Each structure stands twice: as structure tokens, then as C-alpha cells.
Amino acid sequence: MDACLTVERDVDKVYTKFQQIASHTQKTLEELIQHVKGISNELKEAPEDSELTPAQSLVVSQCTKKMKDSASYIGSNHKDLHSSVSKIGKVIDRNFMPDINALGQESNFDSPEKVNLINEVICEHFFRKGMLDIAEQLIDDAALQVDGTNKEPFIEINKILEALKARNLQPALQWAQIHREQLHAQHSSLEFKLHRLQFIELLRGGAANQQQILQYARNFGMFADGHSKELQIMMGSLLYLRQGIQNSPYSHLLDPINWLEICDVFTRDACSLLGLSVESPLCVSVQAGAIALPSLLNIKHVMQQRQVSGVWSSKDELPIEVDLGTDCRYHSIFACPILRQQSTDHNPPMRLICGHVISRDSLNKLISGNKVKCPYCPVEQSPSDARQIHF
Ligand SMILES: [Zn+2]
């Protein structure tokens, strides 16, 4: 953070300097233009073919000198500014540790297959964001074999989201009606929320829409069971149709936040229905990496100082536990109660027949003879009865 502030201070200095030079240059040039215009007008008034008087010729030569001086002054200012700007690069280098390569594993990118995989992830990210032309270009440039069916769901979702952002509910409503059963199975209230928003938009129009509003209310018949409370509020708001909803206790219905919320609800429900993650895996990875990087750089530094850097040899695992915050928690993890270590692919959780779970390493350590005694209950059992658990 300190490094950011130092760089920001230097950038501010250059920016102030830039503004000063820009306004000064502007002023000098305007004055010069006025001056030259004045001389030019004076010369125009003189009869044709007449020679310059000595006074006029003096004025012209003084003006030329002034222009040359100003040009060289502006030039030197520009040069000065240029060197200040280039110093910013050095300030950034000085303040940020560029040695993040030490944390990476070169073998991550060393084969064409892996590079291909990374390109595919980047490509999928662009599809997700609706940047179709960039994604297509990447497919061409990197000669990727991307199945057309991969991008279709993203294109559809993005089209609907664009429409929602433009406050057009129709494409989303059509989508929700087509997928009604699947949405219902995952307890989604997307369709109701879309109809509710359409109803609110009609309310916004006031008494002039009365007929239309009553007509539209028929759509809510099928939602009566699950959303009675919300329906009561919507019907209650009709009492204030004439005086205007915005001046009534129901004014919260018109809150623009409803539109932001519907975009979130749609994205979440549509992604879950299509078996996609809500957030782009690439964004999440970069975000997690950025959060973890300072701790990893610190531990690396400490390890080097104490000359124990060889300890971190297995790069599939982190040398310390890094807390990425609740946003980055996606699934349950298991920490062995005996060894007090998080389980890994090589040391997975094992369920004993009594129902207690310990890691495989603990299980192996507890075997005596051909039996193992559960450290908790303690039921004696055969180690081969233990079953691996997958989270
Ligand atoms: Zn047990």
C-alpha cells in the first residue's frame, strides 16, 4: 500500500506539472496569435506595393524573434516533462517487487497443450463478457478448436442481459417461460421477479395504465402460493395509483435497485441452470492470485533469509495457509483432526466404519497389526473398510 501511495504522489507531481505547462503554453500561443493577427491586419490596411516603414519592419522582426523564443521555451518545457514522465516508470520499478516469477512454476506453461488450455480459458472469459469479436480473433490467432455449442449459451445470456440493462424485460421473460420447469426445480423465482418488475413499470405510468395493470395482474395467478406477501404489497400499491406511487408508502417499489437485482438474479439462475459458474473462472483465479501473492512473496522472502527455501519443494501445495476471504470459498475442505493438516489429493479424507473421518496418512499411522482403532470412539476395524470421501 505504501508503494502505491509513493507512486501516486510522484504521478500527482507530474500531473500538476503537466497542467501548469499546458495552461502556460495555451496562454503563450493565444497571445502570439493575437499579436500576429494585429500585425497582419495593420499590414493589410497599407496600400498595395508600398514598402514597410522602418517602424513596421522593426515590429515584424521583433514578432519573429518572440515566436522563435516561445517555440524554444515550449520545446524545452516539453522535453522536461518527457523526462519527468519517464522517471515514473523507474519509481514503479523501485517500489514494486517484480520478482513474482520465483513463485511460479515454469512447467505450468511449458507444453503446447497447457498453452492451449490457457488460451481456451481466456477465450471462454471473452465469451462470458460478450466480447465475441475478441474471442473469435483469439480462436483464429491461437488456432483453437472451440466447439460452437460452447459459446451459444454465453451469447444468449449476454443478449438478455443487454436487454435487461436497457430495461427491456421481454427476452428474459421469454427465456424464463421456456425454462420454467427447470427453474422451478431449482426453486428459482426468476419468472415471478420479471413479471413483478413489468408490473411495477406499468405502475410507474400511473392511472392511465389502470386497465393494462389489471390485465397484467392475471399473470400472477400461478405465483399466488409462493409469493403471497409480495403480491399483497403489489395489490396494495394500486390504491395509490391516482395520487402517484412515488408519493405513497409503496414508493420503494420504484427503486432502481430492482433493475440491478434482476440482472444478478438472472445471471445466477441462468448460469446454475446451464451448469456454468456465475463468475468467470479466469477472473476468480486472477483475483485469488492477487490476494495470495503478498503473503506468498513474504514467506518466500523469509524462507530465503533463513536458507530453508528448499522446504517448499512440492509446488502443488502452498507452504502456508492463505485466507482468500469468504468470496473465494466455494466448497468444503477437510482438515485432519489428528495431523491437523488440510487434506490433499495424496492424503484424502477417509471415512471409518464408525462414521469418523481422518486423513489417509493418519489412518496408515494408526494401523497396528492388521487392525486400526478409531481414535475417537474407539471402534476396532480393518483398515481396508475405510472409504475415501470426495467433497
Ligand atoms: Zn470412530
Plain-language structure description:
There is one protein chain. The chain is mainly alpha-helical and 391 residues long. Among the domains are: 75 residues; 127 residues, no CATH class; 58 residues, Herpes Virus-1 (2-Layer Sandwich), CATH 3.30.40.10. It is 58% helix and 3% strand. It is built from 13 helices and five strands. The strands form two sheets. A three-stranded antiparallel β-sheet has the order 2-1-5. Strand 1 and strand 2 form a beta hairpin. Helix 3 runs antiparallel to helix 4, helix 6 runs antiparallel to helix 8 and helix 8 packs antiparallel against helix 11. It is flat, with a radius of gyration of 35 Å. The chain starts with a helix and ends with a strand. Zinc ion binds next to loops.
Poorly predicted runs of 5 or more residues:
none
Strand content: under 5%
Q: Helix fraction?
A: 55-70%
Structural class: mainly alpha
Rounded to the nearest angstrom, the distance between the terminal CA atoms is 37 Å
**How many E strands?**
5
Q: What is the topology, as strand order, of the major beta sheet?
A: 2-1-5
Count helical runs. 13
- Molecules bound to protein: zinc ion
Give the oligomeric state of the chains in this entry, treating copies of one chain as homo and distinct chains as hetero: single chain
